[in-house]
Amino acid sequence: MFFAELGLAPELLRAIADEGYTQPTPIQAQAIPLVIAGRDLLAAAQTGTGKTAAFTLPILQKLNSAVAINGPRLARVLVLVPTRELAAQVGESVRTYGRHLPAMKTAIIFGGVGINPQIDLLKRGVDIIVATPGRLLDHVQQRTVNLSGIQMLVLDEADRMLDMGFIRDIRRVLTVLPKQRQNLLFSATFNGEIRSLAEGLLHNPASVEVAPRNSAVELIAQRVHPVDKARKTALIAHLVKAGDWKQVLVFTRTKHGANRLAEQLVREGIQSDAIHGNKSQNARTRALADFKAGKVRVLVATDIAARGIDIDMLPHVINHELPNVPEDYVHRIGRTGRAGSSGEAISLVSSDERQQLKDIQRLLRREIPSSIIEGFGPGSAPSQAELAARAVPLTPRHEDPRKHANNGRRNDSRNNRPASAGAGRRPGSPSPAKPAHSHGHRQGQPQRDAGSRAGKPR
Ligand code: AMP
Fold this sequence. Notes:
Radius of gyration: 24 Å
Structural class: alpha/beta
Shape: globular
Number of domains: 2
Distance between the termini: 40 Å
Strand content: 5-15%
CATH superfamily of the largest domain: P-loop containing nucleotide triphosphate hydrolases
CATH class of the largest domain: Alpha Beta
Low-confidence stretches: 392-458
Strand order of the largest sheet: 3-4-2-5-6-1-7
Mean pLDDT: 81
Bound molecules: adenosine monophosphate
CATH architecture of the largest domain: 3-Layer(aba) Sandwich
Largest sheet: 7 strands, parallel
């Protein structure tokens, strides 16, 4: 199958050739003709499958073939996305694929940045709006956007939007759109909530599903390294240094954990930065640019912040902790091995994460090979260098650490050690100096860490 067979204009075929794509991906081959034909679409596809081009190309095709409009125009296409990063990325794709259609104008609308430049842009007239729901509603309320000309609506990563609590915002946006329009819904997962959204939104939709959802991850070499929680940071530093890795994306479950890990790696001499929702848009953009340029070797990210990070040939992804939601694992590792390039995804798994690992393996329908990195297996003691790096008054090894834990004065008080030391340890959790044989991992009793499993990691 070739792009030329999909009914796309020569300008779009040129842009596709510029990108070096030779063949449509399965989601593109299925979705593009349906969208051009005007069908509503329910598409099961996740990041890494080429889904962005699967809706962007036919949108451009349709806009291009419609009667040319002179003077100020009304936006005809609205793409709703869950995050700023994804908005930027989808907007970038529209510009990339539309580069030989210079008259086509796109506005990328998201929060966390000044609203006035967006107002100016919208006033001048655009064809396509790519937006996050919250900021779009700000414009609706201020009457700085006119959505009365929308003919096509795309909900991209609809499951994420629902996860992030955007359902009411989405419904409010729907009320200001013309009733007659084409609707496309893309989602990686389908639960009851998505289905009910889809039922209310789509009219006689065509369904498109790309091969099992792990197809995108087949090229990725996956490995699990069992390790104690308290030694995960040291293991990451070891892997990065020993492998001389230059570009590593590390996932943590929490924003705080992301900061702490980045700080600690910097102290280990590894140039690192963190991106998450508490950072300003400028800080995130800068961190990402530094990472892409090779100035930052390790980028630590939370799931949400990492959505939409699009780096060709990202060679290494590390899960500092496994995600609670198994689908997030697929999203995370889909950051590497994109569109044909191979990559490596490593998960550091402590004894309390066995259930998550099981759930992920069930989703993938396969076991992920597991191996112990010498010196970092569960229960192995930290090296002298590691101990020295932790600014903690350590319990002498021959002493029972519980004695200290029980004496009411916690060793890991925030006042007497930097926040980054002993990453992952909580008050009362096993001391890193605890002897090897006492770790739960060997004893077959999975421990649930109620604190870190409670709620979603966002
Ligand atoms: P997406 O699933 O939209 O996030 O796209 C994943 C990656 O695949 C992006 O980096 C695209 O540039 C790339 N891509 C999209 N379509 C193709 C194609 N037909 N051939 C090769 N790469 C593609």
